[in-house]
Amino acid sequence: MSFMKKHLKTLTIALGCSAGAFYLGWQSPTLMGDVFEQQQVAQPTPRFYPLERFIISVPGKEYQHYVLLELALKSSSANAKHQLAEADPLVRNSLMKMFAGKQVDELNKPKNLEQLQQEAKDLLTNVLSANKFAVKIDDVLFTRLVIQ
């Protein structure tokens, strides 16, 4: 009998521990909070900020040409609208200098468009940063480019 009581007692303790471990494993997210849940960071939605059109003169082989440029800046920064509005003269001046330094042949080739957009993005990123504007430019999109 004592042998049976001893094993029954051991079996009861083992079952109790197993049930307790199962319960804790099942309820751990509830008991311990969100430690076990995967945290999702909300990605800010990119927004587009169109600039007023530019008309820039660029040198050609025989005579001056005019470029009509419309573009938009893409940014995910929360404060982009305000920062870009304040930096508008700086942005426009930087882009005008960049395009005024180009030859018409550089601008007339469709394959150069992506390179020009990247160059404008790099330029604006550096200029805004150097002037303490806390806005990140994700992309520069030319929405219209007319050369005469």
TrEMBL record:
It is a single-pass membrane protein. Its main location: membrane. The keyword Membrane applies. InterPro entries: FliL. It is found in: Cell inner membrane; Cell membrane. The keyword Lyase does not apply. Keywords: Cell inner membrane, Cell membrane, Cell projection, Chemotaxis, Cilium, Flagellar rotation, Flagellum, Membrane, Transmembrane, Transmembrane helix. Controls the rotational direction of flagella during chemotaxis. Belongs to the FliL family. This is Flagellar protein FliL. It comes from Shewanella submarina. The gene is fliL.
